[in-house]
Structures are given as C-alpha cells and as structure tokens.
C-alpha cells in the first residue's frame, strides 16, 4: 500500500535489531526489568490468555497452545508493568523451545489500544531451543509497558517453553550491516544475447581495473577494463562500470570476476523475459477478493473466498458508508486487494487495470497473451486471459459508482476497507472487521472514467454488452466529475487503510478526457484535451508517474492509440523527448538507473517509478524503432534484478538473492511457516529514503538512498507489494519479451 499513514496503531511496529549478543554481555550496565524471568519461584506475575494453562513446575514456563486459532494475539503469554525510559537502549533476551517448531512473536508494547510496539521480533523457535537476543531504543517514558509472546494462529496444537527472559538497559546497539555479497553487481537474472550488458564494481580503487567474463565451466570468454565512475550519490559507494555487451553467446551460469570478487551467476538468453511476463500477471489471481483461490491453479496459494459475508467476514456484498457519508449500501465484492492488506482503492486500482489493458493494447505478439496463458478460472472462454484478469478489477471499479438518484450520483467512492487496522498475518476470509465505503472523490471518479473508457474499446470484440456498460459508466463519471471538480479525499482518513489523497486532479481530468476521446472521437473530449495545461507541459517528472500523477498515462495513450488529434505528431515527439530525459539520467548514473531525484531522496515505491520511467523509454522505441531506447529499457531493468547497491533482486523468485518477505497478511511465511512467500514474479516497492515504518527506522537511520530497504515483512514502507507495482513490471516484461531475439 503506497501510503505512510496509520500503521503505528497496528501490530507491525517492530523497533528491533538482532545483534547476536548474549544477555550478559549486552546488559551488564542496567538493572533487570523482568520479574521472575527464570521461573525459579513459579510463574507469577506472568499471565496467559484464558485458552491456555501455564506450567512452571519444570523450572521453565511451558504451555500447550491450542490449534484452530486465527490470529497471533488469540493466544498470549505476558507480563505487565515493565518500565521503559525514553532514549534508553535495552537488551531483550529469552530462551525458547517449540514442539513442533513454530514462529512466535516477541513483543514489548503499549498495554492498551493502539498497542504501539517498541520491539517486535519473530523468532523461529526450534524443538531443541535457542537463545534469542535483540536490542531496541525506547522512544517513550512508560512505567507500565507489556512484554508479550503472541503464539496463536496455528491450525495445529503445539507446545512452547520459555526460560531466562531478561530485559536490561545500558545496552549497546550495533549498527545494521546488510549482507551485500560480492562487490561485482550484475543483473542476476540475465541479459539478452544482442542487448547491452553492464555491471558495476564497488571498489576503493580509483584507476581502471581488469575484469573477466567466465562461462559455467570457469573458462574466460571475454575480458576488458573497468571505467571508474567516482562516488555514486545514491549509494555512497565508489564504483566502476564495466561493459561486456560484445559477448553474445547464449548460456547459463556466467560470472564476472573483477578486483578479486566473483559476481552472482547470471544467464545470457531470452526465455526468462517470457516467463516473467506470465509470472507478473499471475500475481493478480492470488490478489483477488471475493472468489476462492484454487490450489489446483496456484499450488500452495489456495484459500477460501475473502470478504463474501461468510463468518467471521462481514463481507463486501452489502457494505455501508462511513457514518454520515451515505444512506445506502453497495455490493463491492470482487476486485483485487490493493497490497499487503485487505483494502481496495479506486485510484490505485485505476492505474493498475489501465496498465494491464495497455499491455494488451500495445502487444506486438497477441498470441502470448491469448486465452489460457495465465491459468485462471476464466481460461478457455475465448477471451485473452489478461483481459479476464483486468475485468475482475474493472467490475469492482464499476461497482464503486454512486447510484443514480443519490447525492453525488455518478461519482465513485474513493475506497473500501476495514473500519480499523488489522495485524499480520491474517487471511482474507478470516478478517472480522466492519467494512466501510469512504466518501466519493473527484480523483476516483476520473479514474473510473478513464479505465471504463479504455475498457469500452478493449472489450468490444469480446463482450459488446460489457463494453457498452463501461462506456455509459465512463460518460456518467465524466459528467459527475465536471459537476464536482474539487472533491478531494481526506488526507486524515487513514484509519484501517491508506488515504491516497491527491490535492490536484487536473492530471486525472486530462487522462480521462484522453481515454474518452480515443474511444469516442467526440469533440467535447478533444477540445478538453487540447485546452488542458498538461497537453503541452513537460510532464516527464524525474521521479516518474504513479497513481497520483496520471497525465503521463493520457499522453502515452494519445501517442500510441489511433486517434485524430490535430497535433498528434507533437504528442508523439513529446514522448520521445521524455525518453531522452530518462536516457540522459541513466547515462549519468553509475548504476545505470533512469531515476535520480535532484534531492537524492528515493520515494515510496521507487522501483515502480523506475519501471514507469522505462515505460516511457519503451514507448519511444515503439514510436521510433531506434535501438538505443530498447537498450535503455534493458539496462534500466538490470537495477531491478541486482545491479544495485544491495546486490539484491527485487522480484520474488528471480535472481540468486531476491526479495521474498514482502509485507503481506497472507503471503506471510516469515511469520507463519504454514503460509507461503509472495508468488514468483512479485515486485517489492524498494528503497524509500523516508523509512516510515519502525523496523526501517530502527535499522536504517542515515541510510544512503539505495540502502534504505529491508527484505522484512514488517518493513511496510520499503518492502510492500502492490497491484500498481506489478502492473508496470508486467508491462515492461511483455515489451521486452516481444522483441524476440533482439
């Protein structure tokens, strides 16, 4: 979820740092804050929830944990009235065993709502047992903090034993040092045989160094010298670039050796782009709301339908508004869950479904997106699977429109989500919170107008009735937005879901008018496009386009989709100018990234912004056929797959070291081994200089932009997954796959 508001009130705070210190070496300076942590005299004042019995007769505190609970907090062992001092650094340690092995949650927190957590750890507790030690700095003076072990959420019963629980001040917090692996940074997935092949060497050397390319047998097949680039502002590293693009032989297991370091292995080939095209789209089926996810279609990801009104769900089939907002209910079931929570947002759904439909519209190889390619329930219905998947979201967007005869009729409700935040992990069908419609907004209404206008032309060959329904909804939404041009989502409406507030909707007006004009050719929309200040402005932000900056979507659509706009030649030229801007940024960047904010601050979801900049470059290639734009796209994707400061691929399942613990309530293996990691082909949001979540704040203070990232499920500001981040990943993967043997 791309928003920084509301998370401190939920069970994700986690201000922790695993140090590996022993309790005695870390805490010799401070008094013991835990009462009876050795259980030598029974277990008072420790307590447990009513569904367990505590037993300290063995000299440890043990309990049999019942199976069949839903949430971690359904079973708790705790101690109250533990004092914390603001600014003090504490060492927290304990010994634990689990039979069978389980992941527990070890918390130090506020003892009342909103249960703000000052330490949150997720130890993997083994049968033989381990000693666990963490350090954290308290941000508050609190005489009555709560120490809690949350151990619910398991389908099967198990047994936990604790001993030597200790909390002492005076600890020394060691700095977090990420494991960045070899200093030679490459695209860990691979390079096209005839495409550019670049790598980055992190080194203290200032003069050029030799490098060697080795095949899977260790044979040197190419060599050269690095090009020193100086200190990279985005990473703080002294780096060299190296270019091995002249080598074109396909193969697997290649490595680069330079300055005594050997890179992670990579391939030279083509098939991985075709695979990613499919994987990035398959992500959407497991994000669906309102339908059972079949394990036969996604082994390991099957689950009951979420939010269909089956207890404990209150469901999305008859959702009321927030108090005072409206006097009706709507059936808004279906659609995609936006991100790692259970909310659904029209503005984020809008850009996501648009980019999927745009991927279909621009594809030079429609057969690769044909019916049956994604393995979804609608496969084999004579409609391309990518459109079936897009329809699942578009139907939801249509359902968010205010009914005729009601105040603000024709506008779209901004979002629907739980009344209050939920914690992790939580499967969609087990969410018991009240769901609410939030007030309509002009931004949401224009997202509906734009996507419905696009759907009207895209679906017409397959379902004329659905196409007509979309066109009618688009025109109704357009009229409603013009009648209510400044209804802005409340930036404080962030309890239970993201705000997605956007104070300037002139870009949404431009995008919606462009889509309506392309579909209808009507003069009203043409005139609006030509009169918009966005039509002739330089809209190619250095930071890229996103859900809140959508004029670029309209410009690209006008440049690529058939229409009779009188200055279409200038529109097409402007896209090429935007691509030139991003290529210049890429050329100047030591890591070859087409993204270099002038303030050197990386944004929330920086990976998505980087790929969206590459979408502009790719569109320039479609418009001109000039190979340097294709090369720019390929080189830019190197960053996503490991040619970066962290030596980390940000796509699950792609690369030697890849993100796998993205923030999610149901892809939550890091918290519960019974749950899966995110599906292969899931993009992480990536480095975020603002480090809004407490896990990142504890570990990443002062981070250089590329280092502002943690592959941790609790780091929601750097490591969330979202539907609008996978959409450009799918688009750009399809673009590259379409180039064949280029």
TrEMBL record:
What EC numbers are recorded for this enzyme?
3.2.1.4
Ranges of residues in domain Glycoside hydrolase family: 275-732
Instruction: List the Pfam families hit by this protein, alphabetically.
Output: CBM_4_9, CelD_N, Glyco_hydro_9
Q: Which SUPFAM superfamilies match?
A: E set domains, Galactose-binding domain-like, Six-hairpin glycosidases
The question of whether Cell division is a record keyword is answered with no
Recorded GO molecular functions are:
cellulase activity
Q: Where is the signal peptide?
A: 1-28
The molecule here is called: Endoglucanase
Which organism encodes this protein? Answer: Phytohabitans suffuscus
């Amino acid at each position: 979820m791309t928003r920084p508001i509301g998370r401190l009130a939920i069970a994700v705070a986690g201000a922790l740092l695993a140090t590996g210190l022993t309790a005695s070496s870390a805490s010799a300076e401070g008094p013991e804050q835990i009462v009876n942590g050795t259980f030598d005299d029974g277990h008072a004042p420790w307590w447990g929830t009513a569904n367990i019995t505590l037993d300290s007769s063995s000299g440890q505190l043990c309990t049999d944990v019942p199976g069949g609970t839903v949430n971690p907090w359904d079973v708790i062992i705790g101690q109250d009235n533990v004092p914390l001092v603001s600014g003090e650094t504490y060492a927290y340690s304990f010994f634990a065993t689990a039979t069978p092995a389980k992941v527990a949650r070890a918390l130090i927190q506020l003892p009342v709502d909103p249960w703000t957590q000052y330490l949150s750890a997720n130890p993997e507790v083994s049968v033989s047992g381990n000693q666990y030690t963490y350090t954290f700095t308290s941000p508050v003076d609190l005489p009555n903090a709560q120490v809690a072990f949350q151990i619910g959420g398991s389908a099967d019963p198990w047994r936990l034993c604790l001993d030597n629980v200790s909390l002492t001040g005076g600890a020394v917090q060691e700095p977090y040092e990420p494991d960045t692996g070899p200093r030679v940074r490459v695209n860990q997935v691979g390079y096209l045989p005839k495409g550019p092949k670049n790598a980055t060497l992190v080194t203290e050397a200032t003069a050029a160094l030799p490098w060697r390319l080795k095949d899977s047998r260790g044979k040197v097949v190419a060599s050269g010298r690095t090009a020193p680039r100086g200190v990279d502002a985005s990473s703080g590293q002294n780096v060299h670039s190296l270019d091995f693009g002249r080598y074109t032989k396909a193969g697997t297991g290649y490595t680069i050796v330079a300055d005594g370091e050997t890179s992670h292995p990579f391939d030279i080939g083509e098939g991985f782009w075709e695979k990613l095209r499919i994987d990035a789209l398959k992500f959407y089926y497991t994000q669906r709301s309102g339908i059972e996810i079949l394990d036969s279609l996604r082994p390991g990801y099957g689950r009951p339908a979420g939010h269909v009104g089956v207890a404990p769900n209150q469901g999305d089939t008859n959702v009321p508004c927030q108090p005072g907002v409206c006097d009706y209910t709507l059936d808004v079931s279906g659609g995609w869950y936006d991100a790692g929570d259970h909310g659904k947002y029209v503005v984020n759904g809008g850009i996501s479904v648009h980019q999927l439909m745009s991927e279909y519209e621009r594809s030079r190889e429609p057969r690769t997106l044909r019916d049956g390619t994604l393995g979804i329930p609608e496969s084999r219905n004579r409609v391309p699977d990518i459109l079936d998947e897009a329809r699942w979201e578009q139907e939801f967007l249509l359902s968010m429109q205010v009914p005729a005869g009601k105040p603000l009729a024709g506008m779209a409700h901004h979002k629907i989500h739980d009344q209050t935040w939920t914690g992790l992990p939580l499967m969609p069908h087990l969410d018991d919170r009240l769901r609410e419609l939030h007030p309509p907004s002009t931004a949401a209404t224009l997202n509906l107008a734009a996507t419905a206008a696009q759907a009207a032309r895209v679906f017409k060959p397959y379902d004329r009735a659905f196409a007509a329904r979309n066109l009618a909804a688009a025109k109704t939404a357009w009229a409603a937005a013009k009648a209510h041009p400044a209804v802005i989502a409340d930036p404080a409406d962030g309890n239970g879901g993201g705000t997605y507030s956007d104070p300037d909707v002139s870009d949404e007006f431009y995008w919606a008018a462009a889509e309506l004009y392309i579909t209808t050719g009507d003069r009203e929309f043409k005139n609006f496009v030509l009169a918009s200040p966005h039509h002739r402005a330089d809209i190619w932000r250095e930071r890229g386009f996103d859900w809140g900056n959508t004029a670029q979507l309209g410009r690209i659509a006008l440049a690529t989709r058939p229409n009779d706009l009188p200055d279409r030649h200038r529109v097409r030229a402007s896209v090429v100018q935007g691509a030139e801007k991003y290529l210049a940024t890429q050329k100047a960047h030591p890591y070859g990234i087409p993204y270099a904010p002038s303030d050197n601050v990386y944004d929330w979801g920086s990976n998505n912004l980087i790929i969206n900049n590459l979408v502009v470059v790719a569109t320039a290639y479609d418009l001109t056929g000039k190979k340097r734009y294709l090369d720019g796209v390929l080189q830019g994707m190197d960053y996503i797959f490991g040619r970066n400061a962290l030596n980390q691929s940000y796509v699950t399942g792609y690369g030697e070291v890849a993100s796998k613990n993205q923030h999610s309530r149901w892809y939550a293996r890091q918290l519960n081994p019974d749950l899966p990691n995110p599906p292969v082909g899931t993009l992480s949001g990536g480095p975020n200089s603002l480090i809004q979540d407490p896990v990142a704040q504890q570990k990443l203070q002062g981070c250089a932009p590329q280092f502002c990232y943690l592959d941790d499920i609790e780091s929601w500001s750097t490591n969330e997954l979202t539907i609008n981040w996978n959409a450009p990943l799918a688009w750009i993967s399809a673009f590259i796959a379409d180039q064949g043997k280029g």
